[in-house]
Write a structure and sequence with these properties.
Shape: globular
Number of strands: 10
Number of helices: 8
CATH superfamily of the largest domain: Zn peptidases
Radius of gyration: 21 Å
Bound molecules: zinc ion
Oligomer: single chain
Strand order of the largest sheet: 1-2-6-3-7-10-8-9
CATH architecture of the largest domain: 3-Layer(aba) Sandwich
Structural class: alpha/beta
Length: 336
């Protein structure tokens, strides 16, 4: 008798193990399926449009920036990602005075939103700035890497989350896709958002900010599969660990923390839009490829982007956002 019970017990143990293993594989398979559609051909057409002559370098408050804003908003509308509830369009209007003489007119951040299925009030922010330097005389500063690359990444990540949602795998937390204006003139768009948040900052779980991820800098020219990460461990060690383990499992890029060092003279932690979240105690990761010879020059053009690498870095950010949006517990801030 005893032996029979043991056999029955082992049998059920075996079944329960294989079921839980199967369920886990399934969740991974889902993530991988939607990440795998983030490829070169999804990115290059959008980037070439954002960095085209038509948008005239996307200077804040000028015609090119407005046209770029419409293009990005039309895209969100086309894929079925709505503005936040209560907003009848994708534009967070910022009055001209806010730019302190750096804009000819009012300008706008772009906001698109996927509601969470379970922890709707908790918000994951994925951002980039879509403005650039405009024109000097007749010369257009295209800003292909800075930051059409990050903006394209945010758009494609929104599409990946939306595809998953349509297939029944919507995120448990809400995701806000934010494209900032006025970054080049002094982080105005993110400053405005942080002082006029659409969702309470206390419920904002993280900001994954992307500014320049389509190129390779001089230091890494022989090992291009890298990305600089800045800020990940500053407010939440849990975020840093999650980011590391996600990359190790799915994307296997070299995560370079050179610019995360507090003693680094570049002080990038304070120099892009994520800082307006970090200073409000919201954990951030800033994704960045480092500067290169075309940085802030009219030669920062779409033909110089490494699109396969851009796709791979975008997949890393998608996977990281997925983990944060779907984990059981909200990311925990360090106590200090
Ligand atoms: Zn930038």
């Amino acid at each position: 008798m005893n032996k029979i019970f043991t056999i029955i017990f082992l049998f059920f143990l075996l079944i329960s193990c294989s079921v839980s293993k199967g369920a886990k594989l399934n969740e991974d398979a889902v993530k991988i399926k939607f990440a795998s559609r983030i490829i070169k051909s999804e990115l290059d057409t959008k980037l070439y449009i954002l960095a085209s002559d038509v948008f005239e370098g996307r200077r804040t408050g000028e015609k090119g920036q407005k046209l770029a804003a419409s293009y990005i908003a039309d895209f969100y509308n086309h894929i079925g990602v709505d503005p936040p509830i209560g907003y009848d369009n994708y534009f967070q209007e910022i009055p001209q005075e806010f730019f302190k003489g750096h804009s000819k007119s009012s300008s706008e951040n772009i906001v698109a939103y996927i509601p969470g299925s379970e922890f709707r009030e908790e918000i994951v922010v994925i951002s980039s700035h879509y403005d650039h330097l405009g024109k000097k005389g007749d010369v257009i500063y295209y800003g292909a890497d800075d930051d059409a690359s990050g903006t394209t990444a945010v758009m494609v990540i929104a599409e990946a989350f939306q595809r998953a949602r349509k297939a029944g795998y919507g995120p448990r937390r809400s995701i806000l896709f934010l494209n900032f204006t006025g970054e080049e003139q002094g982080l105005f768009g993110s400053k405005y958002y942080a002082s006029h948040p659409i969702f309470p900052l206390s419920n904002t779980v993280v900001n994954l900010n992307i500014d320049m991820i389509g190129r390779v800098d001089e230091k890494n020219k022989d090992h291009p599969e890298y990305i600089y990460l800045i800020g990940a461990d500053k407010l939440s060690k849990q975020l840093h660990k999650l980011s590391e383990s996600t990359n190790k499992k799915y994307t296997k890029l070299t995560l370079d923390y050179t610019f995360n060092d507090d003693k680094d003279p570049n002080r990038y932690y304070y120099r892009s839009d994520h800082y307006n979240f970090a200073k409000n105690n919201i954990p951030v990761i800033f994704y960045f490829n480092g500067v290169h010879k075309d940085y802030h020059k009219f030669t920062d053009t779409a033909d110089k982007i490494n699109y396969d690498l851009l796709a791979k870095r975008t997949r890393l950010i998608f996977y990281t956002a997925w983990e944060i949006a779907n984990r059981d517990e909200r990311l925990v801030l360090d106590k200090n």
